[in-house]
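Data deposition worksheet. Section B asks for the primary sequence of the deposited chain exactly as it was used as input, without tags or linkers unless they were present during the calculation. Section C holds the resulting structure in token form. Section D is free text for depositor observations; keep each observation to a single sentence. Incomplete worksheets are returned to the depositor.
Section A, Depositor: J.P.
Section B:
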Amino acid sequence: MVSPPKPDLITVNIDGREVAVPKGTNVIEAARLVGVDVPYYCYHPKLTVVGNCRMCLIEMGMPAVDPASKAPIIDPTTGKQKINWIPRPQIGCATNATPGLHIRTNTPQIRDCREGVMEFLLINHPLDCPICDQAGECKLQEQATGYGRGYSRFIEQKNVKPKRTQLGPRVTLDDERCILCSRCIRFCKEIVKDDVLGFVDRGSYSTLTCYPGKALANNYSLNTVDICPVGALTSTDFRFKMRVWFLKQTDSIDTGSSVGCNTVVWTREGIIYRITPRRNDEVNDTWLPDSARELYKPVRAANRLTAIKIGNIDSLLDAAVQAAAEIVRSAAGATAVVGSGRSSVEEQFLTKKLAGALTASTHLVSRVGPGDGILISADRNPNFRGALVTGLIKGMPAVVGPALRAGQSSSAGSPGMQSPTQARSESGPHLHTAGLESLGAAIDAGEIKAIIAVNEDLIAGGLTAAQLAKVSVVYLGTHANATSAVAKIIIPTLTVFEKGGTFVNQQFRIQRFHPCVPGPAGAADDLVALGKLVAAVGGAPVPTELHALWSVLATEVGALKTVTLASLPDTGLLLDPTPFAGLPFVEGETLHYKPAAAAK
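Section C:
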């Protein structure tokens, strides 16, 4: 892999300290490198610069030189080169680092400017922090404490603006809180290409609204809530549900497609309240589809499986495993194992071990839907590449079926074309599941008598009810479906939010996710259930604890020989995709989303 070229470093002086930064670095980012906070509202590293809020004012100067000879002018009192300071403050967000640049961020003039800006921003702002959803993560609160005067000289009536305005199906606006930073407007226009938001009226009466006849309804609308520095834009779903300081944050991965967006899951007392994006410039920048934010809702769904069953009788895990072993033994080698592209790398490895112990054929269900060219790929399995890396399958196309042809671009469609429900639906025109056609033919030919299905609905994968009636099914999964309804053995397992492991995204980047909430009573850990099945059917014992299992993974899986679970960085680690080059992935061999360039 070719190393990226080293950046062209220059030296700038920030509050008397020199720091080397890449040429063109934004002053706000440069100051952050030396631990200096330059406050801001409208600036965002992934959006263009507009300089709306004026909160990031700094003093700026350059080394003085003689106009004629270009020789440095030396200050006689210090013996150093004189600095020509610009008499008026400049906005830091629109200033890029140049050689010799000097900035001052904490002078009396700058402190006075920031206090003035804060005073203007708070003139019409409502005093409703105790009921505001942004409380606890509000930049206005933080900076009012750090840079506000501590008192108000405003005695007139505040302007009253619209409240509880529905901008779209998932976003609610309290316009009284808006400070006109325009982040939301720029996000929709520049990232999603859905130019739907704008300001109307002037001065203190300026109001955020949608263009006539439009709504904020694209599949990335909740990113405007994430980047709103105040409580103006709120999630309709999360609104008034929980104070953020009560919530625990856990790193996870979006399982809605093979892009593998990095997420943070917010929980309290075993309940998930929201999912937000986690910054990873190599995968998803700071963005996340709205559809990914609702993936936690089936965790507490009414059809969640919570009882291990042999037939219709409740059982214990060991008894169910032994009963499953009897079923596959009675099949006399005519057994198939259906793995899942939604299982973790570790689970797929044990699924491969299970198939090997049974000398069974292995199958994988593919999922395909319209890619949106941003953060939803046509391949809707989050870990199909993991199945390739572990050797669970070899050479099977990532996507089959009529929805898309191999090599067709995944950017077909637009973000506004699909709702969160459509984006994760198991059926219907927006998501096509397939891949079990050869298994169906083997069943019809009498070659398969038993199936172990790991977290897959075989009916949705392409089998018919008549075909399932010919075989004995052992089902490991999280929710009741057509397959569990006819299964001889049911072993409830954990959702991605209740366990840990790794996924390999479409870049062949292996990324880790962590358990966020405990699983329901009666559900078995997938690794434990698979490990017991491997042993019960005569396979060699394998570790079922995550870290212990990785010692075996690193030994047996070539792509992971130099990888350890503990060494995986938070942003993931790129594996070598060369062994899989040429396979007909729908969205290509690399991530189709081009992260936005840093604002200049």
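Section D:
The longest strand covers residues 57-63.
Confidence is low (pLDDT under 50) at residues 397-429, 587-600.
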